[in-house]
Amino acid sequence: MSLALDLFSAVAIGAGVFFFLAGTVALLRFPDSLSRLHALTKADNLGLGLVVLGLIPRAGTPLAVLKLVVLWALVQLSSATVAQLIGAALRRRNAVE
Amino acid sequence: MTLFEALDLGLAAIVLGVAAWTVAVREVFSAVIGYVAYGLLLAIVWVRLYAPDVALTEAAIGGGVTGVLLLTASARLSRLPAPDAAPSAGLKIAAAALAFLVAGALAAAVVYLPDPAPSLAAAADENLAATGLGNAVTAVLIAYRSFDTMLEKVVLVLAVVGVWSVAPDRVWGGAPAALGPATPDAALVFLARMLAPIGLVIGVQIFWVGADEPGGAFQGGAILAAMWMIVMMARLTEPPRIGSGWLRLGLIAGPAIFLLIGLAGPFMAGSFLAFPAGFAKPLILFIEAFMVLSIAVTLPLLVAGSPSREAGE
What we know:
The complex is a heterodimer. In chain A, 89% of the residues lie in helices and 0% in strands. By secondary structure, chain A is mainly alpha-helical. The termini of chain A are far apart. Chain B folds into three domains: 1-78, no CATH class; 86-118; 120-313, no CATH class. The longest helix of chain B is centred in the first third of the chain and has 28 residues, at 52-79. By secondary structure, chain B is an all-alpha fold. Chain B has a two-stranded antiparallel sheet with strand order 1-2.
């Protein structure tokens, strides 16, 4: 059972790290700000979600699990909002130019 | 080289790289963003040094509040007319020399520390039971070195007084300018409505667990301050009039309660700022609660700046 859980953690965290890597590559390689923003929000939310998923079996107490999930939800909320705000700022700047 | 050593070296290289970029970049806005990233990276460095209390403070103050402070300052600066003349070469060289001198002196002090470095950690740990606390950092801040902590909070109040005092006479007692545009982005309003209640709970929680685990008054207060700022930026509430009695009471509550309990020390426990045996923990938490309030009021007032609207407006 513990081997299966370890394997689950390793796979989930590994997949999470892959999405972070993909997001970082996209941040460096994509041509314009909106595409970069798109890649970043998707990759980071999914990446962090998978890392949190992998850490849940290792959290120990239900309270620690709850804290991990809340952490992910808070990052979701702030990253989605910040993406909207940056996107709106970009649109305003493009409208001026 | 182990994996952790390689990660630490990489982290140190990134911190230095971001610091160099922050100094070198031309636009003020980019420099502030670099500084915020630098603060968050430093927080990770403190975690690697097993100092989670310092990491929390660095993330909240170095990354968060100072970032907002610098951003609002840069926005205000950009609205001012450009200065007539660029600073002279002599002035630039003098500023660089001063910066190098300070950084060099600090670096020398760290490099030439005796080995093993002097430490009071053992003594702090030994007397922890007398305070009733479980977190030695909180014990150092509010019990062992309480005089320093009290004066730090007085300095914060003085900073607010300094910001207020540049206001012209006719707006004295009035409110600072609004923190955001007249019609803020709907996403920001949504964030403020969703996040503020959650952040309130988290801020109080971080203060409360600070007695026994990483956390404390400063970190908790900074989170509460951030919540007030985000609500003001979303224009759900406006910066308060600086003439308000409640506001001023909240501003000085922390250091005032600290000082009052300190002055009661000679009668209850034999010396200034001493806590009577057995009552240390409740008194410390009582002081800290008012500290949280003062910090949560002080930091947004620093960001809001000096009053610009007359009291009646």
